[in-house]
Amino acid sequence: MTPTAFESETPVGAPQTPTHPPTGQRRLPREPLVVIEPSRSTPLNLRELWSYRELLYSLTRRDIKVRYKQTALGVAWAILQPLFMMVVFSLFFGRLAGIPSDNIPYPLFAYAGLLPWTFFSNAVTNSGNSIVGSAHLITKVYFPRMIVPGATVAAALLDFLIAFVILILLMFYYRVTPSWHIFLLPIFVALSTVLAFGVGMWFSALNVKYRDVRFALPFFIQVGMFVSPVIYPSSFIPGNLRWLIELNPLTGIIEGYRSSLFGQPFNWRAIGISAIVTLILLRYSIYTFRRMEKGFADII
Fold first, then answer.
1. CA nearest to 156, candidates 203, 185, 192, 186
2. Which residue from 32, 35, 95, 146 puts its CA 20 to 30 A from 282's CA?
3. Burial of 98 by CB count in 10 Å (0-12 exposed, 13-18 middle, 19+ buried)?
4. What does the alpha-carbon distance between residue 153 and residue 147 come to, in Å, rounded to a whole number?
5. Residue among 271, 78, 82 at smallest CA distance from 184
6. CA-CA-CA-CA torsion for 192, 194, 195, 201, nearest 10 degrees?
7. Dihedral sign from CA coordinates of 65, 68, 72, 75
8. Whole-angstrom Cα distance, residue 231 to residue 247?
9. What span, in angstroms and rounded, lies between the C-alpha atoms of 288 and 294?
């Protein structure tokens, strides 16, 4: 008897033959065959970071475009922020308070301190929020996560270079001729970049788990300016308390900027402390970031 369209050729109770997918299609496995996750061999895989250098460039360019998108003044804001602060500090601290400036015109002295401080504060603030702000990218594909805060610091470095032009003009206006110390300036630029990257990367990892960081970070930045020799020289601090401010890694860096630009003697003790503290912070930040980045996609 020929089966009808509503009858099955397989007898009731007979073992069912597994249904094969249509031709050209494959059944997906229940468990993933390959799991992509950060390497645990070394805390910092330089080869992996170098292979993603194009992504670093793309994210840096994106941060620069987004920052000045739909702004009337554009990159001029990179100049106006330290310039206006220099005017305010020169009026209140230079003239009214009479804070010394190590025989340097106070506007020039203040701007030389505001330049690295503005770079550091902007880089740390933006990189501290960079991982949370890139949630759409973190949850989709794998790449070394520390590239995200690194790109933010690189974008802030461009603002630093633009604002540095005003410093050159101020030195020309006050007839300050740089000495051979100027050749050591790239060392302090690199040191401040490493410090900003380490601190910003640490805050970015903490911000994923503890969203209080975004509220505490501006307070940290405000306090940090007054405990750093931005508006005053380190010689303004009494000798018995000077070691305390030298524990701040920005102290040796900012003083190194001024010594390189204005030909003053270097405070090698403060510079050495700054270098050691910066490397320790960078090492700790990398370790903390690598330990926490595995759960970024789940928490963010």
1. 192
2. 35
3. exposed
4. 10
5. 271
6. 140
7. negative
8. 18
9. 11
List the structure tokens of 195: 């410090």
pTM of the model: 0.81
Q: Which residue has the tokens 């509220």?
A: 215
Pick from 78, 104, 81: which is nearest to 229 by CA?
104
**Where on the phi/psi map is residue 179: left (φ > 0), alpha (ψ -120 to 50), or beta?**
beta
**pLDDT tens for the 300 residues of the chain, in order:** 444 444 444 444 545 555 555 555 566 566 655 555 555 545 567 787 788 888 888 888 888 888 777 666 777 777 888 899 999 999 998 888 888 888 899 999 999 999 999 999 999 999 988 888 887 888 787 778 889 899 999 999 989 999 999 999 999 999 998 889 999 999 999 999 999 999 999 999 898 888 888 888 988 998 999 999 999 998 888 878 888 899 999 999 999 999 999 989 999 999 999 999 999 999 999 999 888 888 776 677
Q: Record the tokens describing residue 126, joined without a space.
A: 């933006």
- Which pair of structure tokens corresponds to residue 10? 């397989």
Structure tokens at 88: 């305010």
In 95-248, at which residue ranges do the beta strands (DSSP E only) sit?
A: none
Domain edges within the chain:
47-289
Core vs surface per residue 210-219: b (16+ CB within 10 A) or e: eeebeeebee
* Residue keyed to tokens 């595995």: 294
Residue 220, number of CB atoms within 10 A of its CB: 15
